[in-house]
Each structure stands twice: as structure tokens, then as C-alpha cells.
Amino acid sequence: QVQLVESGGGLVQAGGSLRLSCLASGRTFSSYPMGWYRQAPGKEREFVASISRSGGRILYSDSVQGRFTISRDNAKNTVFLQMNSLKPEDTAVYYCNTDIYWGQGTQVTVSS
User: Fold this and answer.
1) In angstroms, what CA-CA distances link 62 with 26, 46, 67, 110?
2) Which of 41, 22, 42 is nearest to 33 (CA)?
3) Rounded to an integer, what is the distance from CA 21 to the centroid of its chain?
4) What three-state secondary structure class fits 51?
5) Which residues of 58-84 are buried (b: 16+ CB within 10 A; e: fewer)?
6) Cys-Cys link to 34, which of 10, 25, 79, 99 (CB 3.0-4.6 A)?
């Protein structure tokens, strides 16, 4: 069993920044890739970013490329999502994911 706990969400003005964290427990963290997804009201959950076990391979969705940065600290069992130049359309619940496991999500709201 894996537990994922996200934190760091909140309300921010457009152009601002937030840093999300996801603390994992229950398995060897460094053995698995990690990802961030988001779900806006009335929309399907969508991929945001992913990072390989060592951090050497990173992928971003086109909508966040150049603004968001995913990273991980395997010693702290934590994956991060640094979000800069936030836009109102980034408003969503952000979820951490690995394999079949999901966190409870953290709300990000960007005001115009």
C-alpha cells in the first residue's frame, strides 16, 4: 500500500507562483516514477508532469511547459511541482500519482 499526501496549494493572483509537495510512504520511493495531474471543475483529469526514478527523464504537458518544474528528493520521499507564471486556467485540484495510487489532491486557485 502506498500513501501520497499533497500540500502547498492555495489562492494566488495571476502571474504568481506556488510550490506543491507530495510526500510518499509505503514503498521504496526511489524505485518508481512520479507524476502530477490536475482536474478542473467540469473537466477530466489531465496529465501535468512526470519524472523518472532518478529524475533524469521529465515530461510536461504543452500547457505548462516552460512555466512548471517537477523535481524529486528521493532522500525525503517527496516530489515537487514548482509552478510559476500561473494563469487562471491553471485553477484545478492537483493530484500526485504513482502506479495505481493517488493522493487526495490539493486545490490551486488562480485569480485574474
Assistant:
1) 32, 11, 10, 19
2) 22
3) 7
4) strand
5) eebeeebeeebbbebeeeebbbbbebe
6) 79
